[in-house]
């Protein structure tokens, strides 16, 4: 059981690597000030989605709320998230307090017993781990503990960095409502929930459930890093996984997959970028090289802002003889400069796929997976199928991290601005060519099944 729990919690460990501590008020105030100054110094464009006045007004409100003599890691993280999330940039964030949650879990903590999905402005039950079978999958929750759901969300939103509400709700699904409800409201032993059924409101009393045995052991994370190749009807289905990890291992998987696809000689290829956390362009470009029929780039414009904080990060973590990182180090602090990535060539004709290609996306296609879907769409290499991505394909990203000096809390920040291949800077996700709604937490695969039906109707 211990091994299984470590696997389940591995995602949370990556979100926060410090333990649960207590910090003096002065330490917290100093880190709060450092957070503000470092964001000003190092972020590519802190005020892209909010005015400086509104950002500072929120900062002062958070600062004035710090009145206690000491604060826990959980309290400090929540306060600092409320500052950084105001920038409304999904790649500028302080991660979920995973270590505090894990400590809470191992101490016998409990959580809300329902997993939720957010569709059409409604909070819908997607998994029910309570003992009440009347709480049906798909039912809408309108309030919890006499708090209307839209008001409840206002308490959770400050923990989530995102450009818009659509993406905030996608992140809430990703990190899970029970975890974030706990962060916002602490442990609740019972919940009074109001459900809308057939136009009528019904109220239920339900107890909380144990974090480990009843919740984490029974659920699956939304994101999926597994790599997979299978053949469905007249199509190859390829799931490349996240664009990270061991690059040689990744390339070997892509190479062997396309060898098998060529052997089968199927007329359709489906590439699944749903529930994908993104990663590095060198991974995604290698995948794209197998479906491209001409040289390509992954962006039309890429600019970076360098700073003393970024330079320290580079010296500590990267090869400073690499041209990309040399540019970071040689430019003056605070300067913004362009960087042009070299054009990539497609694979030789005898290796690449030449049939119909479809790429699946959904609101959980994050970061580089959204950028890659846009790249493929803009070059016309494939048809995009699914729902709009939460992340923008033209975005402030190229994320890196640094730690606050007193608390050690990790700050993730955007150093670059990426413009999609077609040059559009519109504040929107990747819009699919064929729209199919994805109900993330049920057992049906509406997008894949819908695409297969579409393909069969064309034949």
UniProtKB/TrEMBL annotation:
Signal peptide segment: none
GO terms (BP aspect): proteolysis; signal transduction
Gene3D superfamilies: 2-enoyl-CoA Hydratase, Chain A, domain 1
SMART domains listed in its UniProt record: TSPc (SM00245)
One MF term in the entry's GO annotations: endopeptidase activity
A Pfam entry, by short name: Peptidase_S41
Annotated Gene Ontology cellular component terms: outer membrane-bounded periplasmic space
Residues covered by the Tail specific protease domain: 188-437
Official protein name in the record: Peptidase S41
